[in-house]
Amino acid sequence: MDCLRALRHLTIAFAFAAVLVFAPHARASGCASPESAGGADTASRIASIACAEHDLWYSPFIDESGRLANLRISEAEGLRLRDRATPAWRRVAAYWLGSGVQWPAPGLPAGADCQGPDGSVGVALCRTFLIDTPWSAVFVSYVLTRAGVPGFQSSIRHVDYVRAAFRSGEQGPYRMADPDREAPATGDLLCFSRQSSQVFGVQGFRDWLQRSYGGALPMHCDIVVSTAGNRARLVGGNVLQGVTMRVLPLNRLGRFWSLPRRTATEPECGPANAAACNFNRQDWVALLKLVPAANVPAPAATPQACCVVCMLPMAPGVRRCPPQAAEPATQSPVP
Q1: Of 141, 163, 171, 139, the residue nearest 153 (C-alpha)
Q2: Are 88 and 75 in contact (CB under 8 A)?
Q3: Domain boundaries, the chain
Q4: What local confidence, expressed as pLDDT, does residue 179 receive?
Q5: Smallest Cα–Cα separation from 219: which of 169, 281, 284?
Q6: Rounded Cα distance, 137 and 160, in Å
Q7: Do 137 and 221 form a contact (C-beta atoms < 8 A)?
Q8: Looking at the chain, which runs of residues are DSSP E strands?
Q9: Which of 37, 202, 219, 319 places its Cα 20 to 30 Å from the Cα of 12?
Q10: d(Cα 232, Cα 225) in Å, to the nearest integer?
């Protein structure tokens, strides 16, 4: 529990350090400018942290045509990420542990150990859980928690914070908007429904939210990290088994330009029908707008001198805490 508590209480300064380490790659990918993160507002912190994670996964992206590019590593692998130290699957475990969601998570097998040595049974059970369990909402929760978004409630389900934005409006950190009518901005979330048996559309989804109280719905949300150059760049977790960027065009008003929409009679994607293959064609249902009251400067943070469970890359001047010596066992007096 001490290790878990230490991980969840890592300061925002660690996030800024990670951003600065990966700054050159983030700029090359068209991501948000990382240098402003230290004293930045909430939106800039969200974008900078998401961009640093995207770069860590070697910057895979889906282009404007909906085609995947530059996929080098996936969630299940033991190969190292760009920091040359972290296996991909362990980074996914870090998202779970640092997101503020319930841990141990529902469905985690008994005996699973996500921080144990490679080759152990506990690690194998953990990796099975990470591969089989969707983690895109966990990634969003991780980024927003580390960015210090005031009032945000972490969840393993996108629909929970989408529903909260629908109900709370300006009273919460996000309000729900129509992605066809309002322009996206850095720090916003763009969401689609993954319900294969139904296409909602924007109004149909609002109607569903009004009828449903606590109902589950498979969804996905990406984080807007940049709107420069008439292009929205969004970063999402568990997108094609990694942290992947999506590029969507914007019109002269800064709104999404004809979001590719899934239909009830969707043509089947295949080699004989390549025009039907588009990872950007989704049932886009909501744009969650970061409200002005939540877009605040970073709180003052006191960097730790050492960390027990350390987020990579480590902040300058921070080292791993030395292991504590085990307390000697005390013997009860012999009666």
Answers
A1: 141
A2: yes
A3: 2-294
A4: 98
A5: 284
A6: 10
A7: yes
A8: 61-62, 68-69, 174-177, 189-193, 219-226, 231-236, 244-249, 283-290, 306-307, 319-320
A9: 219
A10: 8
CB atoms within 10 A of CB 23: 19
**ω before 299 within 30° of 0 (cis)?**
no
Are 234 and 186 in contact, with CB atoms under 8 Å apart? no
CA dist 332 → 17, 308, 327 (Å): 49, 32, 15
Q: Read off the amino acid at residue 99.
A: S
In eight-state DSSP terms, residue 158 is H
In angstroms, the Cα distances linking 62 to 78, 246, 281 are 24, 5, 11
- The Cα 170–Cα 172 span in angstroms is 6
Residue ranges for the chain with pLDDT beneath 70? 1-29, 32-39, 300-305, 307-318, 323-335
DSSP string, 28-79: HTT---GGGGTT--HHHHHHHHHHHHHHHTT--EE-TTS-EE-----TT--S
Question: How many helices, marked H, and strands, marked E, lie in the chain?
Answer: 9, 10
- One-character DSSP codes across 310-327: PPSSPPTT-EEPPPPPPP
**Residues 32, 85: Cα–Cα separation, whole Å:** 24
> In the prediction, which pLDDT does 13 show?
38
Nearest to 88 by CA among 49, 120, 60, 66: 60
Beta bridge partners of 118: none
N- to C-terminal Cα separation, the chain? 35
Inter-CA distances, 23 with 26, 58, 97, 156, 179, Å: 5, 13, 25, 29, 30
Closest-CA residue to 246 (of 237, 257, 235, 254): 235
Q: Alpha carbon of 178 to those of 23, 203, 285: distances in Å?
A: 32, 9, 7
- Buried residues in 164-200 as b, exposed as e (16+ CB within 10 A): bbbeeeeebbbbbbebeebbbbbbbbbbbbeeeeebb
pLDDT for 36: 46
Would you state the pLDDT for residue 2? 44
